Amino acid sequence: MEKDFDKFQKSVKLNFNNPKLLEQAFVHRSYLNEHRDFELEHNERLEFLGDAVLELVVTENLYNNNPNPEGELTNWRASLVNSKMLAKIAKKLNMEEYLYLSKGEQRDSGKARDYILANAMEALIGAVYLDKGWDEAKQFILDNVLSELPEILEKKLFIDPKTKFQEAAQEQAGITPAYKVIKEEGPDHNKLFEVGVYLNKELVATGTGSSKQEAQENAAEAAIEIKEWA
């Protein structure tokens, strides 16, 4: 199916001098494995650039507009530029329908797709910066990323799930949660951990992830929902 990038540009209020640069932001490496004669490169170099532009724009904005301590600003920035948030914004912009993916990647969903979307969002920022310059890249980030900050602050989304669950558990039950690896599988370069979060001996929830830290955070997030705390 033909991808209408003119339609996408209008929807996000962009007007590229080089539309091929915009298109490249959506090319996943896997697509080129199946389409070796495709005219564009994959988006990883653009992603590398966009990541740096995004971080600087967000950092500058937070620094200039908030007198808060460094630790708080760091947490706010992390909540704006993490993969989960960038994937959410990419979905809002309907970026998913424009992705160039292999047949295998097209079938994937959930976290694997979110990771690809987050990377494409950074690549898009890199493409805007290269094509339109700093000011337009900055405006794009202000409109689409920093606009999420009020909700993050209101719902305290900048507090990581482990901290949030610990504070709630201590307040509600007087217990500090403990985490334990339940299962570990896969080769060293591609591990999958399953971690349980416990209150005393009660297993409250489990979470999986490619690192113990990620699995712990997913377990804490699940525990918050189960206990309906925080």
Give a description of the structure.
α4 (44-65) crosses α8 (110-132), α4 (44-65) crosses α9 (134-144) and α6 (83-92) crosses α8 (110-132). A hairpin with a 2-residue loop joins β2 and β3 (202-209). The protein has two domains: 5-154, Ribonuclease III domain (Ribonuclease iii, N-terminal Endonuclease Domain, Chain A, Orthogonal Bundle); 161-227, Double Stranded RNA Binding Domain. Strands 1-2-3 form a three-stranded antiparallel sheet. The chain has helices at residues 5-11, 19-24, 29-34, 44-65, 70-81, 83-92, 103-107, 110-132, 134-144, 149-154, 161-172, 212-227, and strands at residues 178-185, 192-199, 202-209. With 230 residues, it is mainly α.
Summarize the structure.
The chain folds into two domains: 5-154, Ribonuclease III domain (Ribonuclease iii, N-terminal Endonuclease Domain, Chain A, Orthogonal Bundle), CATH 1.10.1520.10; 161-227, Double Stranded RNA Binding Domain, CATH 3.30.160. By secondary structure, the chain is mainly alpha-helical.
